[in-house]
From TrEMBL:
Coiled coil: none annotated. This is Histone-lysine N-methyltransferase, H3 lysine-9 specific SUVH4-like isoform X1. GO terms for cellular component: chromosome; nucleus. It is found in: Chromosome; Nucleus. Keywords: Nucleus. It comes from the Eukaryota. Residues 98-250 form the YDG domain. One of its GO terms (molecular function) is double-stranded DNA binding.
Length: 253
């Protein structure tokens, strides 16, 4: 009975990835509505297919109990991404400010690890991905994961909470955030008026539930385009700790 359930789950997983591929293809297709896929879009789809194949292999080994109990509790999506990285199969690995070739606004991803595989957000765990350009660091992309006290003001404006000090993320005691690393980089974007890629973690269609992503909560990571940082200030959060708030406004091209 348990074996049949495992097989059924894997069948559903494959179906879910097919839905994901069709959805992503629609998102990366030209705005004209053409079904053609460019070279850069094809690379994105191929990278996701490789991730899919490896993820399903790890799931299969987990269900067969080949690696033991400890392996069964591992995050196979992260394992799959790290294996692909070691094999040099991540794409769009250059650190640059702006959109990523082959990924249109509205593209959806089931796993956060996929964002790193395709080069949309280079950090597997941290919410702010940044790099040094000249004498300063600048934020390249941010993920609004829902684990911080972020506030949506309108369809084009939201308040993003800086990184660090959140016990919901680190499982440690709450502490003050510091104006270093990603927080400093994001502030530099505001000072020098550089845009940043924004990815939101959102509730999505039933098709994304088939893989049990995010413990079956039906979430997806959605690329929302480029935003500018138009404000930065300090507050005391619900735990009384210092936190940085950044006002993000959609960049109208």
């Amino acid at each position: 009975m348990e074996l049949s359930k495992s097989k059924a789950a894997l069948k559903m997983a494959r179906a879910g990835f097919r839905d994901l591929e069709l959805n992503l293809t629609a998102c990366v297709s030209p705005a004209s509505g053409s079904s053609s896929v460019s070279g850069s879009q094809y690379k994105v789809l191929e990278a996701l297919k490789q991730f899919e194949k490896l993820y399903l292999q790890l799931r299969r080994e987990e269900n067969q109990g080949l690696k033991g109990r400890a392996y069964a509790t591992a995050r196979n999506c992260i394992k799959a991404a790290m294996i692909l990285r070691r094999e040099g199969k991540w794409i769009n690995t250059d650190q640059h400010i702006g959109n990523v070739s082959g990924i249109e606004i509205g593209a959806k991803f089931q796993f956060r690890a996929e964002l790193a595989v395709v080069g949309l957000h280079h950090q597997l765990f941290r919410g702010i991905s940044y790099a040094r350009f000249g004498s300063k660091t600048y934020a390249i992309s941010i993920v609004d994961s829902g684990r911080y006290e972020n506030v949506t003001k309108s369809s084009d404006v939201f308040i993003y909470t800086g990184e660090g000090g959140n016990p919901n993320v680190t499982n440690k005691k709450p502490r003050d955030q510091k104006m270093v690393m990603g927080n400093l980089a994001l502030k530099n974007n505001m000072v020098d008026n550089f845009p940043v890629r924004v990815i939101h973690c959102r509730k999505t269609l039933k098709a994304f539930d088939t893989l049990g992503i995010n413990n079956g909560k039906g979430l997806a990571y959605v690329y929302d385009g480029l935003y500018t940082v138009v404000g930065c200030w300090e507050v005391r959060d619900q735990l009384g700790k210092l936190a940085f708030k950044f006002e993000m406004k959609r960049l109208v091209e």
